[in-house]
Amino acid sequence: MLETRFKWLYAASLALSGAILGQMLLYALQQIFKWKSLFNIFDLCVILFKDLHVPAPVAWHAVNALILYSFSAVLWISARHFLGSIKSMKLVERYQDPHLTEQYRDKFQLAEGRFQIISYKAPIAMTIGLWKPRMILSSGLMDMLEPNELHAVIEHEKCHMVHRDPLAIFLLSIISKSMWYIPIFAWLADKYPIMIELRADQYAITQMKQSAHLGSALLKLLKQSPTPHVSLSHASFAETSMNVRIMHILDPQMKLPFKWPLIRLLISLLTIILLVGLI
């Protein structure tokens, strides 16, 4: 039930942010090319703000600054991710162990190019890539885990690949940072990765038909030093809410401590009405 609500909230956030960015783009094009203003369903909001006697120059400059910031943030985050992806791929190719990669890819029936093992001492298990996600494991992780624990980790990462979770994390990062003035986006960007990890944990438990191996793998990783920082959007086995995940593995029926942010929802709604009304 909770996962379904998060999915709907995620979809609604993408649709809403896309609509706002689309309207901002239309507004900017109208200002640049002097197009005739097109009718939209928010024209009544414009009338409302006129009735509130909001000074036109103040509103115009504020909206232009907000639009410039939002699109600049989108471009900056996208460019940073793109450059981070290039750098990370070069490192992966540099440290890749072709023999181990082929051996385990065949063992777990993973497609070519969707799974790579790198020779790296620190334990790493993550899924990267927006359109064609791939699983990255390190030799340090494989040395640390027992075969069944490693199997559970691979099943966990498979779930991230199937659902393209790095793409979801990337999109939420963009909308939460480019539209920080709508606080529900920041809340979702913080909580949704937890739900992603819990879903992947549940998938791994289902595939393994028990939770002991996944739980012991998490505990081992919890005792290790932090995973090296990666600058691009990714879904990592050992970076998100370890304590919550361990408790959920021990008691799958436990109620997760999520409180729906009613105040943030209200502020977000008012902000959207104000924005669209001014635009």
TrEMBL record:
<keyword id="KW-0812">Transmembrane</keyword>
<feature type="transmembrane region" description="Helical">
    <location>
        <begin position="260"/>
        <end position="278"/>
    </location>
</feature>
<keyword id="KW-1133">Transmembrane helix</keyword>
<dbReference type="InterPro" id="IPR052173">
    <property type="entry name" value="Beta-lactam_resp_regulator"/>
</dbReference>
<keyword id="KW-0472">Membrane</keyword>
<dbReference type="Pfam" id="PF05569">
    <property type="entry name" value="Peptidase_M56"/>
</dbReference>
<feature type="domain" description="Peptidase M56">
    <location>
        <begin position="58"/>
        <end position="249"/>
    </location>
</feature>
<protein>
    <submittedName>
        <fullName>M56 family metallopeptidase</fullName>
    </submittedName>
</protein>
<dbReference type="InterPro" id="IPR008756">
    <property type="entry name" value="Peptidase_M56"/>
</dbReference>
<feature type="transmembrane region" description="Helical">
    <location>
        <begin position="58"/>
        <end position="79"/>
    </location>
</feature>
<feature type="transmembrane region" description="Helical">
    <location>
        <begin position="167"/>
        <end position="189"/>
    </location>
</feature>
<feature type="transmembrane region" description="Helical">
    <location>
        <begin position="7"/>
        <end position="29"/>
    </location>
</feature>
